[in-house]
Amino acid sequence: YHWLPDVMKEFQRKCPGVEVKILAEATHRPIQALLQGKLDLGIVSSVHRDKRLGYRALFEDEFVAVMSTDHPLVARPYLAAADFADQNVILYVEPEESTLFQKILNPAGVTPARVSTVPLTEAIIEMVKAGLGISALARWAVEEQISTGKIVARPITRKGLRRQWQAVTIKQDMTPAYVDEFIDLLSRPAMPLGA
């Protein structure tokens, strides 16, 4: 919701006869919705091995741990998997769909003391600010709160945790021009590249 409205506005200017609909119920399972014909395009951060699907790289972002300004972990330059063990971790998705769990916690055998699922970024930020737990979110999604000092972000692991976002479509002999145009707009440098 931070950068997509600008893409949609430009797309509407370039392709005025095409209506863009966002299928919210496909957010957590875009591949399934795509294969069922409910979507023309999905935006994903992991590649699913399926010969029916085609992928195109869009942008990369950094996933960071976010916490209240007075949280004890603020003193650390980065968070390791073990730092999440005694925390209430507030997630946007269920643990089995979470980048934090799949890439960091599960491989290290770490289970947080508690996990709260809150599918609204603004609510997660408010809970973190109130000291009710820590979270892991895309840096670009919380940059304003970080820059105003409302919350603190730390890299996850010494190297950080980056995700490569991709556009995924059903492979076909000829992709509609409007789909290619939308993907081109999504992959422009104005996206959260390197954010």
How is this structure best described in words?
The chain has about 200 residues and is α/β, with parallel strands linked by helices. It contains six helices and seven strands, in the order H-H-E-E-E-H-E-H-E-H-E-E-H. The chain has helices at about 5-15, 30-35, 100-110, 120-130, 140-145, 175-185, and strands spanning about 40-45, 55-65, 90, 115, 135-140, 150-155, 160-170. Strands 1, 2, 3, 4, 5, 6 and 7 form a seven-stranded mixed sheet that branches. Strand 3 (about 90), helix 3 and strand 4 form a beta-alpha-beta unit. Helix 1 runs antiparallel to helix 6 (about 175-185). It is globular, with a radius of gyration of 18 Å. About 25% of the residues are buried.
* Overall SS class: alpha/beta
Average pLDDT level:
91
pLDDT < 50 stretches: none
Please report which band the strand proportion falls in: under 5%, 5-15%, 15-25%, 25-35%, 35-45% or over 45%.
15-25%
**DSSP E strands, number:** 7
Assembly category? single chain
Helix content: 25-40%
Give the helices and strands as they follow along the chain.
HHEEEHEHEHEEH
Number of distinct helices: 6
What value does the Rg take, in angstroms? 18 Å
End-to-end span in angstroms?
Answer: 15 Å
